[in-house]
Design a protein that fits this description.
The complex is a heterodimer. Chain A contains no helices and eleven strands. By secondary structure, chain A is mostly beta strands. In chain A, the strands form two sheets. In chain A, strands 2, 4, 5, 9, 10 and 11 form a six-stranded mixed beta sheet that branches. In chain A, strand 6 and strand 7 form a beta hairpin. The N and C termini of chain A lie far apart (41 Å). By secondary structure, chain B is mainly beta. Helix content of chain B is 0%, strand content 50%. Chain B is globular. The N and C termini of chain B lie far apart (33 Å). Classes of the chains: A mainly beta, B mainly beta. At the A-B interface, strand 4, strand 5, strand 9 and strand 10 of A face strand 5, strand 9 and strand 10 of B.
């Protein structure tokens, strides 16, 4: 059974810092891994989708890496801004129906 | 449509009433998923549709919950005789294929008073 975990659970950084969020999964037989952002009480916004054959995906200040064999992904945020404050979730499709299996999330606070 | 649309965005209902939540997926997306997220909790899978059929209903918490999808498009999640513990944000996602990723709607915040 696929399990996805994220560390740290919470992170507070001053504005301008670079930071790394970690995601690990137990079953390496994945199609892809998707990173989402969630603002309080809101839906999920997709940030990056990284296919199993890829090592990295970049979008603006965000860079996601994937090491399928070790069951790890990282989300790197460069030059953090207060507007980056949110919960970040990683997820992989799993099971017979490919429903998304979510990590526990990292609550990020960027202090002005 | 350009994105996944959910309505209403907010719903306040009295305990014991029935509610219907609507999800309009991206056009052409055959897979549709419902999740719910209680306050401070993670996402809980409810039901999966492929086309109009629901091969996985394993996450529906009780027989008060039901869902349907018509025309391979719009889905409705119905909660009968609502209880306070049903209060949560209900999220819908659609996908063309697992390899193409998933798109979520903005959710419906349900409050049962």
């Amino acid at each position: 059974k696929q399990e996805v975990t994220q560390i740290p659970a919470a992170l507070s950084v001053p504005e301008g810092e670079n930071l790394v969020l970690n995601c690990s999964f137990t079953d390496s037989a994945i199609y892809n891994l998707q990173w989402f952002r969630q603002d309080p009480g809101k839906g999920l916004t997709s940030l990056l989708l990284i296919q199993s054959s890829q090592r990295e995906q970049t979008s603006g200040r965000l860079n996601a890496s994937l090491d399928k064999s070790s069951g790890r992904s990282t989300l790197y945020i460069a030059a953090s801004q207060p507007g980056d404050s949110a919960t970040y979730l990683c997820a992989v499709p799993g099971g017979a129906t490919n429903k998304l299996i979510f990590g526990t999330g990292t609550l990020l606070a960027v202090q002005p | 449509g350009a994105g996944v649309s959910q309505s209403p965005s907010n719903k306040v209902t009295e305990k014991g009433k029935d509610v219907e939540l609507r999800c309009d997926p991206i056009s052409g997306h055959t897979a549709l998923y419902w999740y719910r997220q209680s306050l401070g909790q993670g996402l809980e899978f409810l039901i999966y549709f492929q086309g109009n059929s629901a091969p996985d209903k394993s996450g529906l918490p009780s027989d008060r919950f039901s869902a349907e999808r018509t025309g391979g498009s719009v889905s409705t999640l119905t909660i009968q005789r609502t209880q306070q513990e049903d209060s949560a944000v209900y999220l819908c996602a659609s996908s063309l294929a697992p390899t193409r990723g998933y798109t979520f709607g903005s959710g419906t915040r349900l409050t049962v008073v």
